[in-house]
UniProtKB/TrEMBL annotation:
Repressor found in the keyword field: no
Protein name, UniProt field: Glucosamine-6-phosphate deaminase
Family annotation (CDD domains): GlcN6P_deaminase
Species the sequence originates in: Kineothrix alysoides
Key words, A-Z: Carbohydrate metabolism
Domain Glucosamine/galactosamine-6-phosphate isomerase: residue ranges: 26-224
Signal sequence bounds: none
Keyword Transcription: no
Amino acid sequence: MKITVMKTEHDFDIAAAWRIIGQMLEKPSAVIGLSTGQTTKNMHRIVSDIYKEYPFDTSKVTIFNVDELTNLDRSYPGSCYTMIYEQIIRNLGISDENFLMPPTFSDDFDVECTKFENALQERGGADLQMLGIGWNGHIGINQPGTPFERHTWVSPMDPIFEEKVRRETKVPDDYPLGGLTRGIVDIMQTRKIVLIAKGESKAEIIEKAVRGPVTTDIPASVIQLHPNCEVLLDVAAASRL
Ligand code: GLP
């Protein structure tokens, strides 16, 4: 596992953006997995800015997000579809066909999970996953305790994030919210993983994920077992390493 520490948050954003651009330039038909959240907002903007200034062929690039909220309309500004569409897809002129996202509503999410994985496989599997990490070590939406061999599924969300979504969407307390997420075993099949984190608030969980034992208590610790993984941090997130 390679650990890269950038001096400032801005340097981190730029370095992370270049991991995405670099993959697209290296392999014009790359299949790239993104993550939503505060960590990735600026890097997605920088990718868009670089593309605007120095456009290149994106017609064969496939983009997907590692997870998506279920049972909420895609038009909810917090849906992964909307965030990734606004932050990247429309700016890079990626076609609808090459933006792979599972639906947010379905009568049978098991079927949707299989369809999503099959669609990725049909394109040769994921080349790169820019992987965020949650405060409790979750990756995608896989929470602590998720078996590493779990395939793509609908997972409960972490309680803090769920609270935020419920507040924003005003859904009733008993409304079934969840997240369709690539399973840990599927994420691990990605040819290259870049685990990304910035800010002091991520320092402790990064220490656990990178230096602690590989355990389902900290889902992100599984990346220690990946043959081609980079952990990209700013100094604040790396402060306990
Ligand atoms: C959510 C997303 C994850 C993301 C995590 C971290 O749970 N589903 O994919 O990695 O948030 O978000 P942030 O970057 O805002 O800390």
